[in-house]
Amino acid sequence: MVLKLTAVPAMASLLRAAAPGLFSWRGYCSRGLQGELSKGFVESLKAIVGSPHVSTAVAVREHHGQDESIHRCQPPDAVVWPQNVDQVSRLAALCYGQGVPIIPFGTGTGLEGGVCAVQGGVCINLTHMDRITELNTEDFSVVVEPGVTRKALNAHLRNSGLWFTVDPGADASICGMVATGASGTNSVRYGTIRDNVVNLEVVLPDGRLLHTAGQGRHFRKSAAGYNLTGLFVGSEGTLGLITSATLRLHPVPEATVAATCAFPSVQAAVDSTVQILQAAVPVARIEFLDDVTMDACNRHSKLSCAVAPTLFLEFHGSEQALAEQVQHTEAITQQNGASHFSWAKESEERNQLWAARHNAWYALLALSPGCKGYSTDVCVPISRLPEILVQTKEELKTSGLQGGIVGHVGDGNFHCILLVNPDDDEEHHRVRAFTKKLGRRALALHGTCTGEHGIGLGKRQLLQEEIGAVGMETMRQLKVMLDPRSLMNPGKVL
Ligand SMILES: Cc1cc2nc3c(=O)[nH]c(=O)nc-3n(C[C@H](O)[C@H](O)[C@H](O)COP(=O)(O)OP(=O)(O)OC[C@H]3O[C@@H](n4cnc5c(N)ncnc54)[C@H](O)[C@@H]3O)c2cc1C
Ligand SMILES: *[C@@H]1O[C@H](CO)[C@@H](O)[C@H](O)[C@H]1NC(C)=O
Ligand SMILES: *[C@@H]1O[C@H](CO)[C@@H](O)[C@H](O)[C@H]1NC(C)=O
Fold first, then answer.
1. Which is nearest to 159 in space by CA: 137, 131, 189?
2. Which of 165, 377, 411, 460 could form a disulfide with 186 if both were Cys (CB 3.0 to 4.6 A apart)?
3. Is ligand 1 within 6 A of the CB of residue 196?
4. Beta pairing, strands 78-80 & 122-125
5. Is the distance from CB of 336 to CB of 311 less than 8 angstroms?
6. Atom from ligand 2 closest to the CA of residue 64
7. pLDDT at 104 over 90
8. Spatial contact of 45 and 54, defined as CB atoms under 8 Å apart
9. 431: closest CA among 352, 371, 355, 359?
10. Pairing relation of β-strands 402-408 and 285-289?
C-alpha cells in the first residue's frame, strides 16, 4: 500500500531542518493553542482505527509518556491502537500531512526515555498487532508483528526445536528491541538483535511501506546494495515504524549446564571472563554480578549464593562438548581464586538462576522502596574490561550513590544500576554526572556510551563525542532524507 503526501509545507520543513528546536510544530494546523489536538483530527484518527482504539484520556496518555527510565516526560496528546499495517500506514500519512509528531510504543520497558512525547503528538501503541505470521523451521526464521514479545515468541516455538536467543531482562516487544538495538545474556554466543534480524517491514513517516531486504525474503547472506535493515536497528523510532520483523532462530542445544562462581575480587572475576574468551571456550552466557547485586538477588529471588563478585555461566553443546568446556572453565576460574563453585544441571534449577539474573534490576530497586532506577550501559573492548570495571566499582563505593553492578561481561558491556529518589534533584544531578563520566571513560578506552539501551534523551551529547562531526552530519542527513519534517519521535537520538 503506497500513500503519497498531499501538501508538504516546504518552507517550514526547511526551517525546521536548519534550526531544530527553534521551530515548533505545536499549534500547527491540527492543534489548538493549548497544544491539544483538534476535534476534527481526533475524528480522523477514529475513522482509521475505530473509536474504541483511540484515547485522549489523561491517565492513558500519562501512562504512555513514560518508560522505565528516570527521565521526566511529557504525555502524548492521544494514543491509538492500530490493528494492522494498513492502519499504521494511514495513521502515519495523516499525522505527517498535518504536522503532528508520531511516537511508536512497544512495551515501554526502554531505559532512556525513548517514548517520551517531548513535543506531544500521537503515540502508536502497537501491542494489538501481535501475530506470528510465518515460521520457516527449515530455514531457521520467523516473522513477527510488533506486539510479539520475546517470551511469547519462545512459548510459540516451544516444540519446534528452535529458539529466539535475544533476551533483555524485560519481556520487551521484539520490534522495540530492534528499535533500540537490544541484547541480553546470550549475545556473547548468539549475537545481539542486530545479528538476528534478517528483514524488516517499516512504515516510513509519510506512510509508505518499506521492506528493508525486499518483500518476503529471508536469505542467509546477500550482497545486494546498501543494508537498510541495519539502518533501522537502533533507530529508536526516529526513522519509521517497524511493523514486522523477520528473525533468525537457533536450534535448541542438545545439552545445557549453568553455574555460579564466586570470586575474591572484581578483578579476579573479570580476569577470568577475559581468559575464558581468550581460550575460545564457546560459552553461551557469562554474566557478572557484584556483591551488592548478589545480596539483593539472594533476598529478592531466594537464592543462597555467596555475597561476593560472582559470575553466572552457561554452556551449550553435546554432553561431550559440555564436559570439555566445563573442565576448561573450572581450571581458569580456580587459577583466579574462585570458590563456591556450583553447577546447575536440572532445568528447574537453571531457570531459577537465570530468573534471578533477569530480575536483578527489581532486586536492586527493592533495596530502597520508593526509589527509581537508572542504568548506565557502557561497552568496551574486552581487553579493557577489567580496568574499567574495577575503577567503576571503586568510584561507585565512594560516590555516595546506592547501587550495584551487573554486566554482560562476555561482550565487554556492564551496567551500574543506580537507585534514585525521584524527588531529590541533587541526587538526579549526581547520577547524571556519574553516568557522563563513565561514558567518557568508556569512549577513552575505544568503547561506546551505550551497549544496548540506546541514546534516547539522555545520551545525545555522548553520541556526538562518540561518533564525531562527520558521523553526526551523516546521521542528520539520513534523518532529514527519511523524515524531512522531523516528526518521527522528535527530540531523540540526534
Ligand atoms: C528490568 C529491565 C531489564 C532490561 N534489560 C535489558 C537488557 O538486558 N538488554 C537490553 O538491551 N535492554 C534491556 N532493558 C531495556 C529494554 O527492555 C529494551 O530497550 C527493549 O528493547 C525496549 O523494548 P520495548 O518494546 O519496551 O520498547 P519501548 O520502551 O516501547 O520503546 C523504546 C524505543 O523504541 C521505539 N520503538 C518501540 N517499538 C517500535 C517499533 N515497532 N517501531 C519503531 N520504533 C519503536 C520507541 O519509540 C522508543 O524510542 C531492560 C529494561 C528493564 C526494565
Ligand atoms: C498498550 O496497549 C496494551 C493493549 O491494550 C495495554 O495492555 C498496555 O498497557 C498499553 N500500554 C500502556 C503503557 O498503557
Ligand atoms: C544487514 O544488517 C542486519 C543487521 O545488522 C544483519 O542481520 C543482516 O544480516 C544484514 N544483511 C545482509 C544481507 O548482510
1. 137
2. 165
3. no
4. parallel
5. no
6. 13
7. yes
8. yes
9. 371
10. antiparallel
Q: How far apart are CA 77 and CA 205, in angstroms?
A: 18
**pLDDT tens for residues 391-419?**
999 999 999 999 999 999 999 999 999 99
Question: Minimum-distance ligand to the CA of 231?
Answer: 3
pLDDT digits (tens, 9 = 90+) for 21-56: 333 333 334 444 345 799 999 999 999 999 999 999
| 364 vs 377: CA distance, rounded Å | 16
Distance 455 CA to ligand 2 centre (A): 24
CA geometry: angle 149, 253, 415, nearest 5 deg: 50
Cell for 145?
Answer: 508483528
Mean pLDDT for 349-365 is 95
pLDDT value at residue 16: 41
**pLDDT tens digits along 312-347:** 999 999 999 999 999 999 999 999 999 867 888 899
Give the integer Cα–Cα distance in Å for 129 and 164.
19
d(CA 449, CA 111): 14
pLDDT of 11 above 60: no
Q: Which ligand is nearest to the CA of 196?
A: 3
Over pLDDT 70: what percentage of the chain?
93
Determine the atom of ligand 2 nearest the C-alpha atom of 125: 1
Tell me the CA distances in angstroms from 15 to 31, 55, 477, 494, one per residue in order. 19, 32, 15, 17
Q: What grid cell was written down for 403?
A: 547501587
Q: Return the residue matching grid coordinates 473509536.
A: 51
Phi and psi for 201 in degrees, rounded to 5?
-100, 125
Supply the residue whose CA is at minimum distance from atom 4 of ligand 2.
Answer: 127
Work out the mean pLDDT of the chain and round it to a whole number: 92
